[in-house]
Design a protein that fits this description.
about 30% helix; about 230 residues; about 25% strand; alpha/beta; single chain; six-stranded mixed β-sheet
Length: about 230
C-alpha cells in the first residue's frame, strides 16, 4: 500500500531523516514508534506533502507521492489526522465533517452514516462549534473528518495524546474495527506501548531519523522497548 525507500529530509542544513525505509502492508495497522524528536511526525508530514524531501521515494498504491502536490494527496485516498487534531474551532461539527467531502473520489457530497455509527456523540453535537467540544470529542471529530473522504490509508499521529482513558479505549476499538472489518490500512504514530500492542499488526521503530527495527507486533521484544522506547 505504502512504501518509503531511502528517504532523506532536511530542515535547513539539519539532516532529519536518514535513508529511511518504511513499508505499510494493505489491510494492516502499522505502528510507527520511537521517543520524542526522532522524526515520526516529520515523516508523516513528508508523506502528506507538508514538508519537502531531499531524496528517496514515497510510493502509494503505485503512485509516486513526491510528484503529487499536497492538496491532491487526500483525493488519492489518504486520510490524515495530525497531532493536536487541528479541527476548525469556529465551525460546527457538521461543517468540520463536510470539509472532507470534496476530496471523495466518488463525488458523494454528504457525510456517510457510518461516521455517526462509529461516533454517536458527533451526531448529537452536529450544531455545536468544534471549539466547544472536549479533547476526546475533538479527536473523534478529527478522525471522523478523515474518514469522510473514504480513504484507502488512514494516518493517525498520536491520537491518544491528552485523551481521557475511556475515549482512548474507544479509539482503539474503532481502529481495530476499521482495520479488521473494513480492511482499512492504518499507519499510526503512538507512544503508549499497551495501546500500540493492542491495535497494531506490525511496528517500525525510528531513532534519530533512521529506521532501527521493524516486524510483526508479536516480535517487539523487551530489549527493543528498553533501547528505543523507554524514556
Amino acid at each position: 500500500m505504502l512504501k518509503i525507500d531511502k528517504l532523506d529530509q532536511f530542515y535547513g542544513e539539519s539532516h532529519t531523516l536518514w535513508d529511511l525505509d518504511l513499508e505499510v502492508t494493505a489491510g494492516q495497522c502499522t505502528v510507527l514508534m520511537g521517543r520524542n524528536g526522532v522524526g515520526k511526525t516529520t515523516l508523516l508530514q513528508c508523506i502528506m506533502g507538508l514538508l519537502p524531501v531531499r531524496s528517496g521515494a514515497i510510493d502509494f498504491a503505485g503512485t509516486d507521492l513526491t510528484k503529487v502536490s499536497a492538496e491532491k494527496r487526500a483525493s488519492l485516498g489518504i486520510g490524515y489526522v495530525p497531532q493536536g487534531r487541528q479541527i476548525f474551532p469556529a465551525l460546527t461539527v457538521e461543517e468540520n465533517l463536510q470539509i472532507g467531502l470534496p476530496a471523495r473520489r466518488d463525488k458523494v457530497r454528504r457525510v456517510p452514516g457510518f461516521i455517526y455509527e462509529l461516533f454517536p456523540v458527533l451526531k448529537e453535537m452536529l450544531a455545536r462549534r468544534g471549539g466547544d467540544l472536549s479533547g476526546g470529542q475533538q479527536q473523534q471529530l478529527a478522525i471522523g473528518r478523515a474518514l469522510v473522504l473514504d480513504p484507502k490509508l488512514l494516518i493517525l499521529d498520536e491520537p491518544t495524546e491528552g485523551i481521557q482513558p475511556n475515549i482512548v479505549h474507544e479509539i482503539g476499538d474503532i481502529i481495530r474495527r476499521l482495520n479488521q472489518e473494513s480492511g482499512l490500512t492504518v499507519l499510526l504514530v503512538e507512544q503508549k506501548l499497551p495501546f500500540a500492542r493492542r491495535v497494531g499488526d506490525r511496528f517500525t521503530i525510528l531513532d534519530r531519523g533512521r529506521t532501527m527495527a521493524s516486524g510483526d507486533m508479536a516480535e517487539l521484544s523487551d530489549e527493543l522497548v528498553k533501547e528505543y522506547l523507554t524514556v
